[in-house]
Design goal:
The chain is α/β, with parallel strands linked by helices. It has a single domain, classed as Rossmann fold (3-Layer(aba) Sandwich), CATH 3.40.50. The strands form 2 sheets. It has a 5-stranded parallel sheet, sandwiched between helices. Strands 6-7 form a two-stranded antiparallel sheet. α1 crosses α8, α2 packs across α3 and α4 crosses α7. The two termini are 28 Å apart.
Length: 226
């Protein structure tokens, strides 16, 4: 028996952490058995290569590490997390709520490749992480869609105006614009649910966006928050 794996992803500044926490609070209030996980797992040594990469130790630009090498860094961290911490819960039937997953490689690493190679990269990524490593495939993926200009303003606010605190992904605005394009491409290819977090260039409030996420979650999983 296996549980359900629900992935929630989005670009930096989209509010993933806030909305996943609120969603999980709602699940707990309704007695839905679940476990929340997040990637990368910075508390574990399995994330060392990821941390070195994001800190710029392999190059100051995201493109300095090719899509396939960087994907391996993140995949190794996911594999260690699965085997050590949540495989038993998943196998026993629990609902797993993941902040980022294989989906993040599809978004952030595919952006380093020319568009004509995006399809091939998604094929390679699925075969590598799901088939070769044996990581579970998600039952549902929700992509929190926030336009890059808005997410950048939110990131600057998060870091109190100090852009030096941004990692190699966060400080490359053009790269993040491409990441939104790859996310929408992956959503269409892999069947993700796009959750719009802005309307007419204006970000929704936290309550408005949470309501939109919960409606989509209910529609696809059957879990009611009423």
């Amino acid at each position: 028996m296996s549980g359900k794996l629900i992935v929630i992803d989005g670009l930096d500044g989209s509010g993933k952490t806030t909305h996943i926490n609120r969603l999980c609070d709602g699940l707990e209030e309704r007695g839905v058995c679940h476990r929340k996980i997040s990637f990368p797992d910075y508390s574990e040594p399995s994330s060392t290569l990821v941390q070195m990469y994001l800190a710029g130790e392999f190059g100051q630009n995201a493109s300095d590490v090719n899509a396939y090498a960087a994907s391996v860094f993140y995949a190794a961290d996911r594999y260690a997390s699965f085997k050590k911490f949540w495989e038993a819960d998943y196998r026993s039937g629990k609902m797993i709520i993941a902040a980022r997953y294989v989906t993040s490689n599809a978004i952030h690493q595919m952006a380093k490749l020319p568009q004509e190679k995006w399809g091939d990269f998604l094929d390679w990524l699925a075969e590598f992480e799901y088939d070769r490593l044996g990581l579970p495939r998600p039952d549902h993926v929700f992509f929190l869609d926030m336009p890059t200009d808005i997410s950048q303003k939110l990131l600057t606010k998060r870091y109190e105006g100090d852009d030096t605190k941004k990692d190699v992904h966060e400080r490359d605005v053009e790269y993040l614009r491409t990441c939104r394009e790859t996310a929408l491409f992956a959503a269409k290819t892999w069947g993700w649910e796009i959750v719009p977090f802005s309307r007419d260039g204006v970000p929704g409030t936290k309550d408005e966006n949470q309501a939109i996420l919960r409606e989509a979650f209910h529609r696809l999983t059957g879990v009611s928050f009423e």
